[in-house]
Amino acid sequence: MTERQILMKKLSTYAFAADDLHLFLDTHPNDRETAAKLVRYKEKLRPLVEEYESKFGPLTADEKNGNRWGWIQSPWPWEIEEGK
Predict the structure, then answer these.
(1) 3-state secondary structure string across 13-78
(2) Residue 43 and residue 37 in contact, taking contact as beta carbons nearer than 8 Å
(3) Which of 9, 13, 33, 71 sits 20 to 30 Å CA-CA off 51?
(4) Contacts for 17 with CB less than 8 Å, ≥ 6 apart
(5) Where is the Protein CotJB domain (predicted)?
(6) How far apart are CA 54 and CA 82, in angstroms?
(7) Whether the Cβ atoms of residue 19 and residue 41 lie closer than 8 Å to each other
């Protein structure tokens, strides 16, 4: 497994957990323990996103660093050669 794949697996794990907790809070808005857990997962997710984007480019088409089209300047997933 490449470094990119390992990082993406970690990232997707925390993102899934955060999304799942967020959905739970939609039906249980007063659950403070779950709300605190959501904050912790988002705090763990943030540095993983930053690390991934610094090494491999943006994950989304959101405007980053004032460059709306920065996400298309990176190679597309099928253009990346494994092991490099």
Answers:
(1) HHHHHHHHHHHHHHHCCCCHHHHHHHHHHHHHHHHHHHHHHHHHCCCCCCCECCECCHHHCCCCHH
(2) no
(3) 33
(4) 41
(5) 7-79
(6) 18
(7) no
Count Cβ atoms below 10 Å from residue 60 Cβ, excluding itself: 9
pLDDT grade, residue 58 (50/70/90)?
confident
**pLDDT tens, position by position, 42-52:** 999 999 999 99
Asked if 27 and 3 count as a contact pair (C-beta separation under 8 A), the reply is no
- In the chain the first and final C-alpha atoms are separated, in Å, by 12
The structure tokens listed for 8 are 């993406």
Instruction: Please state the pTM of the whole predicted model.
Output: 0.70
14-36: pLDDT as tens digits? 999 999 999 999 999 999 999 99
Q: Which residue has the tokens 């809070």?
A: 25
- Torsion sign, CA atoms 81, 16, 19, 3: negative
